[in-house]
Design brief:
By secondary structure, the protein is of the alpha+beta class. It has three domains: 3-87, Alpha-Beta Plaits (2-Layer Sandwich), CATH 3.30.70.100; 102-186, DHBP synthase, CATH 3.90.870; 189-248, no CATH class. Helices cover 16% and strands 29% of the residues. It has four helices and ten strands; from the N terminus they run E-H-E-E-H-E-E-H-H-E-E-E-E-E. It has helices spanning 19-29, 51-63, 110-116, 160-167; strands spanning 3-13, 33-39, 42-50, 70-79, 87-89, 189-192, 196-203, 209-216, 224-232, 246-248. The strands form two sheets. A five-stranded mixed beta sheet has the order 4-1-3-2-5. Strands 6-7-8-9-10 form a five-stranded antiparallel beta sheet, with no helix packed on it. A hairpin with a 2-residue loop joins strand 2 and strand 3 (42-50). The longest helix has 13 residues, at 51-63. The protein is elongated. It binds zinc ion (2 copies). Residues 158-159, 161-162, 180-181, 183-184 line the site of one zinc ion.
Length: 249
């Protein structure tokens, strides 16, 4: 069998748009070996396999790219086969960024909106929900190449569930750099004038994602917010309530 190896450098808006997971899945589909990584000026990959599937891979990459990717240039170089087995997404190599286009922040996609509004989902009402098809990009990037340690998300250590999604090639959060949930990501607090905390998404005592439930009492002067308890959204956790509090705003 004729084994070939090619290096493919792709430039354009190709970081933060799910390009590496896309390449990974494509390589799996054609049983190719090699690796892919972000570089200072785009995405660089090497693929190895029989000549025909490698050609198919290149053709598919040109026409099936992720919806948000914009490729400005693709450079293919012939290499000697190395016998590498498996296909991996490599950590970014330290190098000086030369030229790359940064994706803008992207509005919440329909899949994330569906999870956001589903009370049975682990990210129900989580304000910072995102995936490889949507979420913050430009506003969290501190340096290039675009990888989690080079973003303001670096300080948020992913919980086991988020980490598993991040590492699962079948998940649409595979290498989603801002991946987060209420248990491990940023939280949002709403305060009334005077610093009165109205609501905050937070964890329950057992570490599950929880939310404070508020209702207003319209009979009072001004708006009176009454906490009716904190409910944990983890399915098996029955932690029901924090002490009731009131706040006037
Ligand atoms: Zn999304
Ligand atoms: Zn999480």
């Amino acid at each position: 069998m004729d084994v070939v190896r090619k290096q493919i450098q792709v430039r354009g808006i190709v970081q933060g748009v799910g390009f590496r997971p896309f390449v990974y899945r494509l390589a799996q589909r054609f049983h190719l070996h090699g690796h892919v990584r972000n570089t200072g000026d785009g995405v660089l990959m090497e693929v190895e396999g029989a000549a025909q599937p490698v050609e198919e891979f290149l053709a598919r990459m040109a026409c099936e790219r992720p919806p948000l990717a914009q490729v400005s240039e693709t450079v293919v170089t012939e290499l000697k086969a190395t016998g590498e087995t498996g296909f991996s997404v490599h950590a970014t190599r330290e190098e000086q960024p030369q030229f790359t286009l940064v994706s803008p922040d992207l509005a919440t996609c329909s899949d994330c909106l569906r999870e956001f509004t589903d009370s049975r989902d682990g990210r129900f009402a989580y304000p910072f929900i995102n995936c490889t098809n949507c979420g913050p990009r430009y506003s969290i990037i501190r340096d290039l190449p675009y990888d989690r340690p080079a973003t303001s998300m670096a300080v948020f250590r992913m919980c086991p569930r988020c980490q598993a999604e991040y590492e699962d090639p079948g998940s649409r959060r595979f290498h989603a750099e801002p991946n987060a949930c209420a248990a491990c990501g940023p939280s949002l607090t709403l305060e009334a004038p005077g610093g009165i905390r109205l609501t905050k998404n937070r964890r329950c005592a057992r570490g599950g994602a929880a939310s404070v439930v508020w209702r207003t009492n319209p009979g009072d002067q001004g708006t009176r917010w009454i906490s009716t308890g904190m409910r944990c959204r983890e399915r098996r956790c029955r932690t029901a309530a924090a002490p009731a509090q009131t706040a006037t705003g």
